[in-house]
Amino acid sequence: MLIFAADFMAEEKNIKQQYLDFEEYIRQGEPEKRERAEAWRVAIGLQAVDGLSTSEYLQETARRNIEGEITIDEARELVKEYYIKKTVHDDDDADKEEADRVSSNISKLLQTDAFTYSLAGFSAIHRAIFEGVFKHAGRFRDYDISKKEWVLRNDTVLYGRWQDLCMTVEYDLEQERQFDYTALNKDEMIEHLAKFVAGLWQIHPFGEGNTRTTAIFTIKYLRSLGFSVNNDMFEHYSWYFRNALVRANYRNVQKGINAEPLFLIRFFRNLLLGETNELKNRYMIINLPEEWKTPTSTPTSTPTSSVSDLLQTANPLIRNLVKVIGSSQCSIKDMLEGLGLKDRKNFLEYHLVPAISGGYVRLLYPDKPRHPRQKYLLTVKGQMLYQELTKQLDLL
Fold first, then answer.
1. Predicted TM-score (pTM) of this structure
2. Which domain holds residue 235?
């Protein structure tokens, strides 16, 4: 156990050293700088899942991009040229180059809204992340794998067979596409999302970079559902995220160990509901000593306010619109009638646009805003708010 404790402390220290302090950009409130800073923070923090850290050159290049001095594409090119022209090489150059180039690639992905929910789209994320780093970027592996995991005391999760990779990824994506969130409460929604992400990760379709690819896919997918993802979670808890995925997929009948999704559920509750569950890597080690254990039946810490804070909105106009739409698909005319309004311009400005921007309402034909049969419906986030509002009415 002393060895595991030493490994844990060393890994924790290594991860903390990787985080960049871009807080000044987050605090100053300039939207474009804040968005770029958040993208870089996540991109750099995710390198911890493979024990990598970025160089000082990458950090300075990131700052130049955040400041608007250079574009993200120029930043990526500068990082590439830096390693091509570098004459003095250190022992960790290969790891630094991977971390730097992958961070700049991830930052670009997060600075764009484009997202394709499909097998090809999932592969494209891996290709975009590891372009110029892995020769097999974007390609599924053609061999079986196993990995010794620290939290499993060097045992491995059973990953997908290479012959079945395309079929299993496509199946999981299609099952999720058809899933109906309408009747779920927030707890059920979180549990379902955690199960979906864990299952997708367990397939492990790529030879390397599966966790980073799954994380970016998850961020973009959650955004498509209307959620404003808390980027701090993927920055500061990327290693926890990976270990939680491991525990959610590991079972050993002989040792009496079952898959434990609770750790991943806690991560998602913090991510999407704003809870403050304690996220400690050491709690996930199998056969944990009693002094290291934490209760597993309930969250270790919750906010004093309602866990619906990140789902709720104080804007009564958005709340009224969500109640009008409900489980229906509504036209502009339907929504105006439901709200008892006649002024289309004011409705768009004060009701519909804020509801769409807040992630509560989406377009039926998002690629064709002026589609003649355009309808509006609630996102998954909007459905969660609708459930909360309905529950409040039932209590009156």
1. 0.86
2. 134-310
Cβ-based neighbours of 110, under 8 Å, separated by 6 or more: 38, 39, 42, 43, 216, 219
Q: How far apart are CA 289 and CA 151, in angstroms?
A: 13
Is residue 304 located within the same domain as residue 233? yes
Tens-place pLDDT, residues 220-267:
999 999 998 877 788 889 999 999 999 999 999 998 999 999 999 999
Sequence-distant (6+) residues with CB within 8 A of 56 are none
Cα separation, 218 vs 133, whole angstroms: 22
Residues 178 and 297 in one domain: yes
**Whole-angstrom Cα distance, residue 228 to residue 125?**
20
In a domain, 124, yes or no: no
Digit-coded pLDDT (tens) for 369-387: 999 999 999 999 999 999 8
Let me know if residue 106 belongs to a domain. Answer: yes
What is the distance between the alpha carbons of residues 290 and 284, in angstroms, rounded to a whole number?
A: 12
Q: Are 219 and 357 found together in one domain?
A: no
Instruction: Assess whether 181 and 264 both reside in one domain.
Output: yes
CB 281 within 8 A of CB 257: no
Contacts of 177 (CB under 8 A, 6+ apart): 117
Half-sphere exposure of 32 (CA within 13 A, CB side): 7
CB 44, CB 55: distance < 8 Å:
no
Give 182-233 pLDDT, tens digit per residue: 888 899 999 999 999 999 999 999 999 999 999 999 999 999 999 988 777 8
**Final residue before a domain boundary, out of 81, 112, 143:** 112
**Are residues 152 and 199 part of one domain?**
yes
DSSP lists the bridge partners of residue 378 as 361
In a domain, 117, yes or no: no
Q: For residue range 350-373, what is the model confidence (pLDDT) as tens digits?
A: 999 999 999 999 999 998 999 999
- Total length of the chain: 396
| Cα–Cα distance for residue pair 360/364, rounded to 1 Å | 13
Question: Which of 256, 288, 310 finishes a domain?
Answer: 310
Q: Could you tell me if 101 and 168 lie in one domain?
A: no
